[in-house]
Amino acid sequence: MKIALFIFFCCISAFSQAQVWRSELPFSYESGNRLSISGNYKFGSDAITNEFAQAYFLNKFIGTELKDNVSSNLKEKNRFGADYNFNIEFRSEADTIMGISGASFIFNFSNRYFLDSRFPGDAFELYFRGNKMFEGQTADIGKFELNAFRYQQVSAGIEIQRSANKSSSCYALISLNRGIDYFGIRTNESSLFTAQDGFYMDLGLDMEIRQSDSLRRRFQGAGASLSAGWSAEFSSSSQLTAYFQNLGFINWGSRSAYIPVDTSFRFEGIDVSELFNFSDSVRGIVDNDSAYIQAFLTNRKKESFIMKTPARIGMNYYKKFDGDRMIAGAGIEHVLFYNTGFSGWTEFRYKTGKYHHTGVKLLYGLYGNLDAGLSYLLHIPGNFTVMLQSDYLVGMLTGSKGKAQGAFVSLSKTF
Amino acid sequence: MKIRNIAAVLILLLFHSCSKEYDKPRWDVSVIGPLVQAEIGIGNLIADSITSIQGDGSVHILYERSFYDFNLDSIYEVPDTIIPKVITWPFVTSTINPGFPFFSNNNNVLLGLSGVSLNELRVRSGIIRVEMINTLPSKIIYTYTIPGAVKNGTALTFTQTVDEAGPGGPGRFIMDIDLSGYSVNLKGSTNSSFNTIYYNVQAVSDPSGTAFTVNFNDTVINIMTSIIDMEPSYARGYLGQNFIRESSSENIGIGGLIKDGMIKLDSMNLDIFIDNYIGADARIKFNFLESVNSRSSASVPLNAPTMIGNVININRAIENPVTGQAPIKSSRVFSLNNSNSNLISFIENIPDRINYEAEIEFNPLGNISSYNDFVYSDYLVEGRMKLSMPLRFAAENLMLADTQKMELGTFTDFDNAGETRLKLIVENGFPFDIELQLFVLDEQRNITDSLLGPGLVRKANTDLNYIAVSPILSEFDVFADSRRRDILKNGKYLGIRGRFNTPDYSQLIQIYSHYKLKLRLTGDGIYSIR
Description:
The structure holds 2 protein chains of 2 kinds. By secondary structure, chain A is mainly β. Chain A contains 6 helices and 22 strands.
């Protein structure tokens, strides 16, 4: 049952595309109360393929072909990232708040996972193929970074809509963050040299490892975030939107582990000289823990640390044609503090009939991929709205070569 | 309805795509790297405590060990002794009033010692058991004292009330008294006897009881005293004129490791010490002393006219004025070398045992100490040998073998290892060839697999004086598959066997402290990450 619930949750939250505005469509100003549930997941990389990521995250065997497909994409520096989010939001319309009309209260609960990494190509090869291919060579494992964390947010805020002449709206949300777990590695200049025949290995390592307390699962960290957006129509047919989301932090507790490593040593094997001591009936004990681990993981500390949440900042522009049957738009977005790049996109939406909206999207970015997506929105009698969207259909449909995937699904009801 | 159907199909697909086969992803890596290393110097082969490094770095052996230990039982031992004491009322019918001390008596217990006349014992361990039987119709209070048994300045004494006789029989009481640490006077109640402990018993009628009548010949005292498991730490007196002949066989060190081959040695000195820690004059004669090689069944008797077959007179030891210290020994030393003995042949036999027969006679001139001989249980007569020789030898097919216990059964990291090529790289800085073999042995020490060998580790390059000038590398490949992995995991011992050959046999080779044998084992194989 537990596994089934987990899988269900995984699947629900797996349809991804983070929502950037409070309604699914531009030029859409809804009145009344609204309850929505949405989930999204996204994976992207400039080197790691979908097949590889799928095998890794679904705990399958990673064969040579999967590795070869990644290796052919590897550059000196590479990136990958993934996230999934699950949201429940309730908007309650109020006539006026402090004398302001068109105002609504917003309450939101989110469950979020975020994974982000920057890695040298040698690090991938070393980790997934071993050091044999570096015999007589130096593998560069420097400038590596990995952040993986889960957290929950409880948010409250206000949205104000004005639709008298030229419609405009704005919102602001403040979130309380609860950290669930965190694991992070960061290396500076680091390398591993494997001598011919494996005679010895020289490791130069400048690394930091941070991990939240693995025993205290209930409340590992706490913080806050701020989200805000503004949207306005300049004429009756064009709309400009600007926003930032999730700008904040999580302070992970004082029982979090911090392991700084700055070492350079040559490993020539575990010293077993004592085993050959014919002169003594009491032989020494060879401790491989001391030989392998304690040699460089000696400086362990417990301390709190502050982590910035992955904040998104962006803006977009839409224009209506033929009444509201066709909408075209473009936008840019950037995730702050992590290894994702700028992304840019352009979109065309078409309304077919009273209840159906379809859209096509072309985008570039996040982890450096050019991709295309489709969206479909359906209004159902009873004030229900269902939306399905993926921005990474090319990545998902190009099989072993694809390096991105993602999906978004939402269900909302106004009343 | 349509939407519900679509949603159902979608959820089914998602369930399928999200299913996980294992707890973690798995992949194989090709790894190469060092596994273990060892640097073996002369300090590994021979203990530091028996080697000395000369100014030029050459190694000398200084080997000292005991080969003869005298047994105290040969002089005396205290047997378990039981002395009953029954005393009857010697008078006419009398009335004993309450609280009346009606009997007191000194009694001697003669220990069953033979050949010695001791006047003092210090007890390391042992007990004295006292059993009191009261046949009188009143409770009796007994006070039992051994005035000559003293510990921390206090004589051994105790008082015990024993119940009166009743329909069920006489009153009875048994007590064990620990004699450890007591010094016991063995001169008896007259202070002129030997080997005799005396005790005093006093009987008092119960002060709170009633008067009772005893008739002539009634039993008034019935006490059983037993000496049990007494082990002295010290004895004083006359130890007698014991003549003892002992033959024995002693295991000695590295000879047991050598399984085969021949060795030729250089000059050496062997000092044999006979140390007498007993306070009695002694006369010792070694009838023979021989080195025994059990493997070849060869025995070489020591031919040393100054020592073997000659009577050796050794004076008595004297008490150490410092309490608790060993007595001051009296020693005789025999220095044997190449010119006054067949010492080289004796050692070249590579003995794993030394056999000997010795005769020892104490107090050959009688009781000249006036009962002041002494003996400590921990300090008797000891024979020691001290060998001094340069580590300069020639070896032909000299084989050393040893086993090392190993426990890899629980080493689960092995399970992930695939086919692996192990490479053993040996850098030999010693001027002799070694044929190296490694075996895996089961619980019964049967060979289950041969990991290596025999592989020839070639000797270092030498100069004209056979001094090693540069090491030589030798490499050996060992292929490890799943079958061998299982054998290793199930193995209980690692057998190591080395056969040594010095160049141009009979040419003596000096060993220097800087000579090293460096081993390095690298692995090249597949490892499954799980």
